[in-house]
Specification:
Helix content: 40-55%
Distance between the termini: 26 Å
Largest sheet: 8 strands, parallel, barrel
Strand order of the largest sheet: 1-2-3-4-5-6-8-9
CATH topology of one domain: TIM Barrel
Strand content: 5-15%
Shape: globular
Bound molecules: ligand G3I
CATH architecture of one domain: Alpha-Beta Barrel
Number of strands: 9
Radius of gyration: 21 Å
CATH class of one domain: Alpha Beta
């Protein structure tokens, strides 16, 4: 912890030194550009700042988005292209074209590169769903992790090794991996990743990690891995939140609990939905399918733009979150938004399709929303 604190202090000093030296140089168009405030510069002494990116950003076809990513962020996560069904579509074949481009983009821009995600029950290849034998599954996991982590050894800095392995009550999710291998699959995944790239930072990533029972499940998992001498470096709290929940205190209790076990904490999938969700409705069961809400205007109240009153609420919510993150800057290493602009967010299609949501810092024209200045002002 001390080491981290010292590093952050040094970074802060160098940042201040850099700012004063910048003040002495002649102003040119390009130095003006680099001096423009950005999330990565303003929070340089606190956290890495990043976004999840997609095909258009990686291929460079979405040029405006790419410029914004390069200006604002020093870390990237692939929103979809490294998921099992895309990268390992058949038992003996891998598809690396997009992942190679993704890693090259991160290297070119000196970014901290995240790999997302090695083992997740969702978006898994169909063939893997058919594996019912634990020895065969362990072999496939070995091949999957060795091949992918090995290919990007020394390039991908952090791996989401296992994603969403727990239920809301902290018990193990009955995924295909758990059904066939039991909890051993988690241990094996972390062991394999550590062996394939000993320098990479290895993370367990999940949503709703502020919930006390789920928190207890994560704590059990960390302790189990640690007791067996298996490397785990961090906990990714996905941070898909709403304007009203969860409570800051609950998030804070989880940050403290994970840090107390020596974990680095990352907010890996940050966004704040501005729309009503089915489970806010009285009597709505979460297990219901949500198709019946499609096209319901009460569930999509701002198709023409976010009203000022909600912009204010969004800015306040993010301010509360960032104030919390800054209080725990010694334990939190990275904040990654789940998407680049509002139009590209997955929250326009989930949990109800075809809605207009506003969960991020940049609007559909890539302009910074009021929340951006509000958050930057926290460091003034
Ligand atoms: O690739 C197909 C494409 O061929 C097809 O034309 C199109 C039609 O709908 O679908 C495409 O696949 C979609 C894929 O995203 C890529 O765009 C899937 O339907 C869609 O379900 C998938 O959603 C992603 C979801 O994970 C499931 O993988 C979201 O974009 C992505 O934001 C979301 O990210 C997850 C994190 O990985 C883990 N934590 C939760 C988070 C939000 O669910």
């Amino acid at each position: 912890m001390m080491k981290l604190f010292t590093l952050k202090s040094l970074l802060l000093l160098s940042f201040v030194a850099l700012l004063s030296s910048c003040g002495e140089t002649t102003t040119t168009a390009s130095s003006k550009e680099t001096k423009k405030p950005s999330l990565k510069k303003v929070f340089e002494a606190d956290f890495l700042m990043g976004a999840a990116i997609n095909d258009g950003h990686i291929n460079g076809t979405d040029t405006i988005a790419l410029k914004l990513i390069q200006k604002e962020y020093n870390t990237i996560t692939p929103e979809n292209i490294m998921k099992w069904m895309y990268i390992h579509p058949q038992p003996d074949s891998f598809y690396f074209e997009m992942a190679d481009k993704y890693v090259a983009l991160g290297e070119k821009n000196n970014m901290h590169i995240v790999g997302h995600t090695l083992v997740w029950h969702s978006q898994i290849a169909d063939w893997m769903q058919e594996v019912k034998d634990s020895v065969a599954m362990a072999k496939y996991l070995e091949k999957h992790i060795n091949t992918i982590v090995g290919r990007y050894k020394g390039k991908i800095n952090t791996w989401d090794v296992v994603n969403e392995a727990l239920n809301e009550d902290g018990s193990y999710r009955n995924s295909i991996f758990y059904q066939v291998m039991g909890e051993r699959y988690l241990e094996l995944a972390f062991q394999l990743a550590a062996a394939a790239d000993p320098e990479a930072s290895l993370v367990y990533n999940d949503y709703n990690l502020w919930k006390p029972k789920k928190r207890a499940g994560v704590i059990r998992l960390i302790k189990k891995l640690q007791s067996k001498g298996i490397k785990i470096d961090g906990i990714g709290m996905q941070a898909h939140y709403s304007l009203v929940g969860p409570e800051i205190k609950d998030i804070e209790n989880s940050i403290k609990a994970y840090a107390a076990l020596g974990m680095k904490v990352m907010m890996t999938e940050l966004d704040v939905t501005t729309l009503p969700n089915p489970w806010d409705l009285e009597g709505a069961e979460v297990s219901q399918n949500y198709e019946k809400f499609e096209g319901d205007p009460t569930m999509n109240p701002y198709p023409q733009g976010l009203p000022d009153s909600i912009q204010v609420k969004l800015a306040q919510r993010y301010e509360d979150l960032f104030s919390l993150y800054l209080r725990h800057r010694d334990d939190i290493t990275r904040l990654t938004f789940w998407g680049v602009n509002d139009g590209q967010s997955w929250l326009n299609g989930w949990p109800i399709k075809n809605r207009t949501n506003y969960p991020l810092f940049f609007d559909r024209n890539f302009s910074a929303k009021p929340v951006y200045e509000r958050i930057m002002a926290l460091k003034k």
